[in-house]
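Project outcomes to date are best conveyed with an example. Our students and postdoctoral researchers have been running inverse folding experiments weekly, and each run begins with a structure described purely in tokens. The record below, which covers 190 residues, was selected by the lab manager from last quarter's runs and is presented without edits.
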């Protein structure tokens, strides 16, 4: 099994955590720099993660997790867990958009429809996720919990985390420190 990703991608980290303890090759690409050609060879979507297993290629972390779950003996997600994943993905996608905009020299605090929508989405999704954390809905270390962990640790790593949800989410992140694979996949050290 070969996982193509990067050590900094929160989406690739989800799959690395899901695969903690399962033998696999991890290909670490610098997708915006020197490994762009390799990324082009791996996926026309030009996004990571990507998984290859016995000739089957899979794009998108959500699809990869669905493919891996039965192989790892995990139960399918219920509808509430699918919704948790959708909230995490919505926040993560908007944060990636904000970070790439910043790196492109765009003022992300400008009064424009596009950036107003991204800011509103990250605020509302993080608030909703923090409420669910407080209600105990992320207490079990399953795939949605892994994804929330990766989101929160990544937005902290990128200095993007602020607002009233931040203390609850950071406390959640800190409680997950001992989970399998978390230390080994820390983007600050790997
Ligand atoms: N929906 C995708 C999102 C993956 C994604 O956005 N990955 C980022 C890296 S963190 C990426 O490859 N970005 C490349 C780009 O946007 O050009 C998934 O869940 O796998």
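After processing, the design step wrote out the following sequence:
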């Amino acid at each position: 099994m070969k996982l193509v990703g990067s050590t900094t991608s929160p989406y690739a980290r989800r799959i690395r955590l899901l695969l903690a303890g399962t033998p696999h090759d991890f290909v670490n690409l610098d997708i915006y720099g020197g490994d762009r050609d390799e990324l082009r060879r791996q996926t026309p979507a030009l996004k990571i993660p990507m998984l290859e297993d016995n000739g089957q290629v899979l794009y998108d972390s959500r699809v990869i997790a669905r493919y891996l779950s039965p192989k790892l003996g995990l139960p399918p997600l219920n509808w509430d867990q699918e919704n948790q994943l959708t909230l995490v993905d919505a926040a993560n996608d908007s944060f990636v958009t904000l970070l790439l905009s910043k790196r492109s020299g765009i003022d992300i605090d400008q009064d424009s429809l596009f950036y107003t929508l991204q800011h509103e989405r990250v605020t509302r999704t993080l608030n909703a996720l923090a409420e669910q954390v407080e209600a105990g809905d992320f207490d079990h270390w399953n795939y949605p919990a892994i994804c929330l962990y990766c989101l929160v640790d990544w937005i902290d790593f990128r200095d993007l985390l602020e607002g009233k949800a931040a203390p609850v989410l950071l406390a959640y992140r800190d409680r997950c420190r001992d989970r399998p694979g978390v230390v080994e996949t820390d983007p600050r050290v790997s």
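The longest strand covers residues 2-5. The mean pLDDT is 97. The training component of this project remains on track.
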